[in-house]
Specification:
By secondary structure, the chain is mainly α. It has a single domain, classed as Glycosyltransferase (Alpha/alpha barrel). Helix content is about 45%, strand content about 10%. The strands form six sheets. It has a three-stranded antiparallel sheet, covered by helices on one side. It has a two-stranded antiparallel ribbon with strand order 1-2. A two-stranded antiparallel sheet has the order 3-4. The chain is globular and about 50 Å long. The structure holds alpha-D-glucopyranose.
Length: about 425
């Protein structure tokens, strides 16, 4: 497949329009804090989300690097003194109260932020912004709160001290309704229309169980405890980036050394505990005490390939056996969130819930760079081309049907503009 220049130009122009259109700034009723950030979507998601903002800042590098920096400095205002980072910051809360009332999965820890976290993509974003701008002042200012986030994850979310951090409800990975959580959440996918009501009931059950427990002790309750492969791969990659950035910023060597050691530990734990040689896949572990592998083929089986020194044999198995398998993941518009061979695969979005089949641009973006890091530029380029083609015909949507390329979910969706980074990388300008 080759894309035309006209298709590329269209996607670039549309992405820039979305990034500008979703930009918000002002003074919040939250202690008069100044905010300036890009919402995932002005209508469907009118707040600042943790991992969305990190992705969006990377896309912004291709529009205005100063805006990319301000996206991150605004975001890091949410980091708490102990390092807890909420997944949503409600800058313009009073304008969007109805949104919060309708959303079944929102639990606030404070009037202006949630009591849930999300994958720490922020370290990778800071690394990309620094590499593009060489702004040492920005680096020093953002490193300290980011190190705090990573320390909190270690202190609170690794209660069994095996190196892998856990999430305590599905939204914390950002993969809300992924079928890999179905067993733990008591969801059956036989009737698509039943998935969302079951999920809603389960979320309420979880939040009831956590009531009054306190963020520090929630993981110990073990009512939902997932050592998620994607979350941990992003966490490990963040530690790798932080070690490098601490040295560049001239932080004490001990800081960089600690991140490096922790990086190795997480990477090795992923291989030792989640890698299944026979299946050729990395599985999430469910249950603090049981750590039962959840053998559902979703895109997260691939995620450790974002780590540049992952064993080459493992990478080869993942790519040849699963990624390029046309019955599973190598569909016309890859990479589907769930393999086409899974009974829960829902490409046409019949369940009206997320992450159960459609293709998302943030996944393609991470795996694109992982493939390149492991010498598979051939597969990466094909993935980039198909992503651009899909977006040229369907616009900047939240996710896409992997069989037809049709756009689904929110319109003008923020992190889908990561396609700008894929286009620049293919041109050799990143
Ligand atoms: C959806 C996604 C989540 C994202 C949020 C805002 O809930 O599942 O990953 O952060 O929307 O875009």
């Amino acid at each position: 497949m080759t894309v035309t220049q006209a298709e590329i130009d269209k996607v670039v122009a549309e992405s820039k329009r979305v990034l500008i259109g979703n930009h918000h700034s002002g003074i919040s009723a939250w202690d008069g804090k100044l905010y300036e950030c890009t919402y995932p979507s002005p209508t469907s998601y009118p707040f600042q989300w943790f991992w969305d903002s990190a992705f969006i800042s990377i896309a912004l590098l291709h529009v205005d690097p100063a805006l990319a920096k301000r996206e991150i400095t605004c975001l890091l205002q949410g980091v708490q003194p102990d390092g807890f980072m909420p997944h949503m910051l409600l800058w313009e809360k009073s304008s969007y109260l109805h949104w919060l009332e309708d959303e079944y999965s929102i639990r606030l820890a404070h009037p202006f932020y949630t009591g849930t976290t999300q994958p720490p993509v922020v370290a990778r974003a800071i690394e990309r912004i620094y590499d593009a701008t060489k702004d040492l002042a920005f680096l020093r200012e953002t490193l300290e709160p980011t190190l705090r986030i990573f320390r909190w994850l270690k202190a609170v979310r690794d209660p069994d001290d095996d190196g892998l951090v856990c999430v305590i409800q599905p939204d914390e990975t950002g993969l809300d309704a992924s079928p890999k959580y179905d067993l733990a959440m008591g969801i059956s996918h036989e009737r698509p229309e039943e998935v969302l009501p079951q999920l809603t009931r389960s979320m309420h059950r979880l939040f009831k169980a956590y009531e009054g427990i306190g963020l520090q002790r929630e993981p110990l309750l073990d009512v939902f405890n997932f050592e998620d492969v994607m979350f941990n791969a992003i966490y490990a990659d963040g530690l790798r980036a932080l070690a490098r950035l601490c040295r560049i910023a001239g932080f004490p060597e001990g800081e960089a050394y600690e991140c490096e050691q922790r990086y190795r530990r997480v990477r090795d734990a992923l291989v030792a505990k989640c890698w299944d040689e026979e299946a050729g896949a990395f599985w999430d572990l469910s249950g603090l005490r049981t750590e039962t592998p959840q053998k559902v083929l979703t895109f997260s089986i691939f995620f450790p390939i974002i780590l540049p020194d992952l064993d080459r044999k493992i990478v080869r198995t993942l790519v040849e056996r699963h990624l390029l398998n046309e019955k599973e993941f190598w569909l016309p518009y890859p990479i589907p969130t769930v393999a086409a061979t899974e009974p829960s695969f829902d490409p046409a979005w019949k369940t009206n819930t997320t992450w159960r089949g459609p293709t998302w641009v943030n996944v393609n973006w991470y795996l694109y760079w992982g493939l390149r890091a492991h010498g598979r530029s051939d597969v990466a380029s094909e993935l980039a081309e198909r992503t651009v083609r899909m977006m040229a015909s369907s616009g900047i949507r939240e996710f896409y049907d992997p069989l037809t390329g049709e756009g689904q979910g929110a319109r003008d969706f923020g992190w889908s503009t990561l396609v700008l980074d894929l286009i620049a990388a293919e041109r050799g300008s990143v």
